[in-house]
Amino acid sequence: MARTTLTLLASLAALAVPSFSTPIELPPIDFNLAEWWTKQLFPCPVWGGTLPNGYQDLAGKYCSNVWTKTWTQGSTTARLYQVPGDWQSKPRYNEFVNGFGDAIQKGLGSFGSLAGPLTINVGIAHGGVGEYVKMDDDNSGTKTPCYILVEFPADWENIPLTALQKDIIQAMYRCVEHFHHPTVTAWTDGNEWWRRGIARYFDGLSYPAQSAFLNRGLYPEEYHYGVTLYQNEDAAALFFHYADQHRGWTPTDVHNWMKGHANKASYDEERTSLAADPKITPGLWHGFILASIDGTIAYPGGQKITNVHGGPPKRVYNSANDVVAPAAVGQEYSKLVSISSFKGGIHVFSVKPGQTLRVSVQTEPGVEWSLRKVGTTAWNSGARDRTVELVVSAGQGNVNYEIAISSTMAAAAGYHARVRMVRSA
Prior knowledge:
Signal peptide: 1-21
Largest sheet: 5 strands, mixed
Keywords: Signal
């Protein structure tokens, strides 16, 4: 008995205990410590379905309450436990384990009251391959519990803690998504963008992206304007940050949009669904495009979200034949420009001085446009069938004007709009 007790005490002393752990009340010395220790053990709740690559040996493992912490927010409970291993003696043990606990608490603070009753099991282990944070989405029809595994990085991997904290919150919110869409388990062209994008939006509320870990995956700064909203996956988070920070949405509004959004299998089905969505209006989408051009989208704390890929694509019409110079009053310059649904574009026109023009854009419902002189900040926006008067003074070189055009139409092959500039003086 004495030898067993000393061995267990030595094991406890050898393993670092994270600072957030609840102090352990050891029983009196005349109690059976081995029996007490055994009572702290429980089967590690590592996964619901087939274990991911590298983690197959976790089946049947036992974890201990000694290294487990539980938090509850609303009807959601999250438990952080540790699968025993030599990783528990690594130099960054306390940094990571405490940091993972902080991330769980921040995630619960953002969305813990938006689902439930829901239990999220977050386990720390070592030996897996692929993504550092994995969420078990092979559990169709099961709302709770949800399983997450966090890979403890090897010593040689210089992984920033904040990157893993973001990934933990993203995985936790995917548990919330699954709670509300329990049969949506297969990743499809129609659902990957919002399932990943909204989860990424929520992790950005707690941990704004930093340049130190942007190369680890798609974060809001890496929104790719060459593809549509519903193909941007994680990076679609940028759109929801815009709706939140600039158009009156709240995190609960973003969550409720996810909760009520129907699952679609293909890009075509999803585009048609978005075109009819009462929340994602042409005005909201167009405002996002303008804010993307100007780089004004920010996190809740005011930190600007940098567009790594720049704003929407720009087309410049600057050949001799494209200079806007109708010969006489009543004559016009006309150009057919292409646009695609849920993408934006900028069209730059060079206007000859010494003339007054009435500018309009012939479009269909779902298309919005704005106009401004290149180098200025204020956009002229309004009804799509409006006419804008441009007075270009004489005595200067050609003046460039840019027109930003966006579309929420369901058309599969995109759409063409006609820019008309009629000389009035």
